[in-house]
Amino acid sequence: MPDKKSMFQLAFIISCLMGCFLIQEGQSKAEPRYVIKFATVAPEGSTWIKHMRSLAGDILEKSSGRLDFRIFPGAVLGDELDVLRKIRIGQIDCAAFSGVGFGQILPMVRVLDLPFLFRSYQEIDLVHNTLRPFFASEFRKKGFELLAWAEVGNTHLFSKKPISQVRDLSGLKVWTWSGDPIAKETFSAMGINPIPLAITDVTTAINTGMIDTVYAPPLAALALQWYTSMNCMTAMPLVHSTGAVLISSTFMKKLPRDLSDLLMNTFDKAMTELTAALREQNNEAIELISNSGVTIIPVPPEDILAEFYSIHDRVAQRLIDNIYPKEVLYRVYEILKRPY
Q: CB–CB of 247/147 below 8 Å?
């Protein structure tokens, strides 16, 4: 018969084995933890990144630690075209794109980036909300889910010399985002041969004198410090730049239904709040830029304004069947109650 010491040792070994079994069983039943690798050109410290970090914390809490984000800001993974390539090979799962990026996936969405298309935020919101289900379905066919529209904002011209009418662009060295057919066609319609560069090369090009005219939302021009090398900014937007947050359909299919629903609902609400914040901060950015000594060129009178609006008509017609079908363009006009 074993002594007491042997009995205690045996009981200890059995309890350890049972403990290990229970731990393994608990681990096998634990929910997996999903991490979304998210990239954006928005710089660290920007409103965009602050909202994204807040959103990530909210989703992590609501999912009880099952869903989280790893955020790569400031184009650390390259510009939008680099990021898109990395999503397609599975290195990244999700990104915030402007038209340059998502236009490589679904070119027809670039209809929203036509110059001088929108005249108010109300028009922007109406078109975006009306067409979202249609574009979401089209993105899905290309292997992406549209998490939310993510506004880049009204984009203005910043230049060394004042631009009050179309002919003032003559002789200027105008930057255009490499790979952006809308911007290229817009400046071509204005009689300009723009200089294509990746967004990461713009600051160097300004400093070396390679370019003397750029376009950006005021908040971006402030964050990137482009405005410090310019003397003027047009009050009239060149274009309203649409953004979108897209996630790989492959990644979304991995998520349990409750997590995919949580992601969609939380993201949509957060981006609506971000849009409101960005619009307010863009107005504040214009004031700061003006106070720094940059001259804000006022919106031109009706006759000259009509000349700018004619640029829209020419560009819109030229890009039919090259970027978007005419049915999509005319659908936008119908929503805006514009003749075509």
A: yes
